[in-house]
Amino acid sequence: MATAKRDEKAICPRAEDYARWYTDLVLRSELADYSPVAGCMVIRPNGYGLWEKMRDALDGMFKETGHRNAYFPMFIPVEFLAKEAQHVEGFAMECGVVTHSGLEADPENGGLRPKRALDSPLVLRPTSETIIWHMYGQWINSYRDLPILINQWANVVRWEMRTRLFLRTREFLWQEGHTAHATAAEAVAEATTILEVYRRFAEEYMAVPVLTGLKTEAEKFAGAVDTYTLEALTQDGRAIQAGTSHYLGQNFAKAFDVTFQTAENTRDFVYATSWGVSTRLIGALVMCHSDDKGLVLPPRLATNQVVVVPIGRKDEEKALVAPVVERLRAELKPFDVIVDSDDSKSPGFKFAEWELRGIPLRIECGRRDVEAGQLTLARRDTGEKKTIPLAGDVAAAIRGELDVMQQAMFQRALDFRAANTRTVETYDEFKEALGPEGGAGFLLAHWDGTTATEKRIQEETNATIRCLPDQFPAEPGRCIVTGEPSARRVVFARSY
RNA sequence: CGGGGCGUGGCUCAGCUUGGUAGAGCGCGGGCUUUGGGAGCCUGAGGUCGGAGGUUCAAAUCCUCUCGCCCCGACCA
Question: ipTM for the complex?
Fold first, then answer.
């Protein structure tokens, strides 16, 4: 009976069905919920709090590297999309388009229908390069106007067919940086600077190790010269793109005719970058760290780092525990501590509930603890319980424990990646390592550099080249498929 | 857009084959007892059975149409 009840409350175990585990977890931990419109989601306070933490950390890093925020409108004239050939090709199929304004009664079905057709349809931004470069064209005259380093926090719309909470929805939140430079070298430096910002954020805040490197021609952003990417590895062995930074060359400057006068009094097209990370990071975070009990949040991104569960209901017990709890409430304020003194729920229920929500540390405080002059501390990532003295500096002990946990989560993910990264020499070995389906970690293999070979591998194995990694030394070899020479190994994986 | 499945209290579902007073568990409200790993008992609220037609004395159940959702294939931060 007890187990039957537990089963109803529990989320699907990872080993049973990883996809269902993920959906269960997101819904049960109240990160998000489905919206009445297919493919869209509501980000609930637990999820949005996480996004705010991410946003604040990244925003600070952007500011430190000289960027300023601005906001461009979400409606884009349809003809703007057509100006950059590859860009249209990449986004045309997934654009949402506004064609009407106003509503009127519809006698056909007794409901409402669009009233006036717009003179010209408006595209809901799938990304903002076009409108931003239209504006940059008006703002840039001379090299003295450069660089322009702007970021915006916004929503974008991509009319996806198959959606998943956080990983792929028709509307999502992100930031998009758009910079304009006088030289190619400076723009490339900008793109790689941001890649490094993203890497630091992923590893130091999310505790998610990432491979960085260039995308192949086939995988790069529509309209980019080069796309740099960050690739994380989920617990089920799939790659997940955590962010991208693009060197756009002069493609958009040419499409929108944005030139500037150089110091030598010549004219040149402006060099550009764009870069972004989205609420998909929340999906990546969940898939890297969380377990069958629920969310596991790295301390640096947890909205509330500590929860205190007072134990005891008899008046004498309460009297004993209450002063300690009040002391904790005050001393642990810097950790945005939650004190859960709801008498209608049992301690066991609360333990499970806060574990589901991923609070990094739980303090249990009951008669036993107070009488022994201690507190019981439970760590979310390992489940480990230990006691700390009540007499000491509790805040300092908590601080230390959180730091250890942040580091341990990163190390664990790093070890997991190492254990799931393999070097293969032949195509047979490659297919063997990959298995028939599902995630199989990162595979490092030689590739001849052609799109044809890349496509063939994808069609035959469903694995794609995640990046040309920049953290491994170049190492000549021969393509696993064609035997043609290769200068370096590339990273293959099945991906989200 | 092709293939498969499902629509019944907030959630998960039973009932439909063989028409006859709408059910269970969870959740929710109230009461009492409980509190160191998802408490127990009592009591209560809550559903025009996705929608529209039809057959019938009678439809959640049978027929027709329709809408919506989920899963699998082609695209993807």
Answer: 0.84
